[in-house]
Design brief:
The protein contains 6 helices and 3 strands; from the N terminus they run ααβααββαα. It is mainly alpha-helical.
Length: 158
Amino acid sequence: MAAAPARRSPEVLLLLQLSQSLVSLALRSMTAAQGQVNLQQFRALRVLDERGPCTAGALAAALELHPSSVTRLVDRLVAAELVTREVKPENRREISLDVTRAGRRVVGAVLEERARELQAVVDALPTTVREQLREVLPALVAAQQAQDDTQPGVPQLH
C-alpha cells in the first residue's frame, strides 16, 4: 500500500506550480533555436558560451554526462558548425571545444525568447506586485542557490 502524500504548505504548492510553468517557458524558448539544437545540445552551447573554451571532459562534468555521450553531442554540434574542436598545441592529446558565432547566436536567440516571455508575464502584473517581487525574489534565488550548493552533482537546465 502506498504511503499517503506529504502535506505541503501553500507556499510549496505555489512554488511547484511556478516551477512547472518556468520549465514549460524554458522549453518553449527552444523554438527560437529553429530546430538547430535539442535541449541537451543547447545546454552544451550555453556552458561553452558562459565558460569559454574547455575540454570535452570539463564539458561532460559541467553537463553531468558520461564523456562518450558528450563526444557524440559535440560531433553533432561541430557538424552543425556551432562548436569548434581543436587540438591544444601545448598538449596534443587534449582537445579544446569552443562555441562559434553561429552557436552564440543560437544561445542568444533562446535566452532572448525566455526574457521576452518573462517580461510579458511581469508586465501583466500590477506595479505593487512587481515591487513585492523585487523584494522577495532575491531572497528566494539566494535560498535556492544555497540549497544547490549543498547538493553537488545535481544537473542544471542552463
